[in-house]
């Protein structure tokens, strides 16, 4: 894939919609194209965060481990970014990301993403909004799971 094609793909991701084209070119150049097969993990819950992933094609389940087993919290499809939360919070991964179809992605290192974010305040705002929405959705799904699995009184 050509650099300009990767820049166009990044521009289609809501986080990067308002980022300067020169910064997107840097991001595309510094990122690594990766592929995963069905069942492969992009990252595992509890691991340190060293990169975010832009899903170019395919689907990834976002799973959380609980004492009762693994629970699907959501999924990521084309033109979405995952793994950025542990970079922003400088903490461990909060979920496991597992490919449910063959996946092509761009792996963006922590330093590169941080640099682009510091140079683009609008991107920081977009990421904050997206993370807030993701948190709202995850909280709602956890509440629904809790209600479905509650023991009758």
From TrEMBL:
The Cyclic nucleotide-binding domain is annotated at 15-134
SMART domains linked to this entry: cNMP (SM00100)
Q: Which UniProt keywords apply?
A: Ion channel, Ion transport, Ligand-gated ion channel, Transport
Its domain of life? Bacteria
Q: Is the Transport keyword given for this protein?
A: yes
By its UniProt entry, which SUPFAM superfamilies does this protein fall under? cAMP-binding domain-like
Q: One GO molecular function term?
A: protein-containing complex binding
One of its Pfam families is: cNMP_binding
Manganese keyword on record: no
Xref: PANTHER family: CYCLIC NUCLEOTIDE-GATED CATION CHANNEL SUBUNIT A
Question: What is the protein named?
Answer: Cyclic nucleotide-binding protein
């Amino acid at each position: 894939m050509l650099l300009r094609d990767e820049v166009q793909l990044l521009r289609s991701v809501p986080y990067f919609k308002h980022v300067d084209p020169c910064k997107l070119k840097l991001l595309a150049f510094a990122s690594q194209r990766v592929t995963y097969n069905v069942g492969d993990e992009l990252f595992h819950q509890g691991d340190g965060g060293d990169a975010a992933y832009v899903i170019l094609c395919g689907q990834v389940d976002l799973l959380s481990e609980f004492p009762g087993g693994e629970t699907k919290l959501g999924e990521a499809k084309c033109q979405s970014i995952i793994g950025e939360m542990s970079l922003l919070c400088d903490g461990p991964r909060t979920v496991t990301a597992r490919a449910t179809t063959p996946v092509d992605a761009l792996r963006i290192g922590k330093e590169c993403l941080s640099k682009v974010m510091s140079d683009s305040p609008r991107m920081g705002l977009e990421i904050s909004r997206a993370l807030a929405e993701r948190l709202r959705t995850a909280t709602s799904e956890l509440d629904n799971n809790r209600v479905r699995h509650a023991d009758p009184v």
